[in-house]
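ARCHIVE CARD
Drawer: 12
Card no.: 0347
Subject: one protein chain, sequence and derived structure
Cross-reference: see card 0346
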Amino acid sequence: MHLEIITPEKKVFEGEVMSATFPGTDGSFQILNHHAPLVSLLKHGPVEYKGKDANAQLTITGGVVEVLNNKVILLADGIA
């Protein structure tokens, strides 16, 4: 699936990943390939994403994530 992580200042990441974990307001949740459409508010916490060759983690201060047609867009308030 395709993941984009965007802040008001810049695009932080764009690429293909196998999974992504987000800090939802009611607890963390994971998105995998072909996930159902979803829009969710996010709180301060870690975002983890796993690609074929590497894993990465960053901490966001909050934001919104949208999942649609195997594309995930994270609009983060900022990176902590």
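Annotation on reverse: The mean pLDDT is 96. Strands lie at 2-6, 11-16, 19-24, 27-32, 38-42, 45-50, 55-60, 63-68, 71-76.
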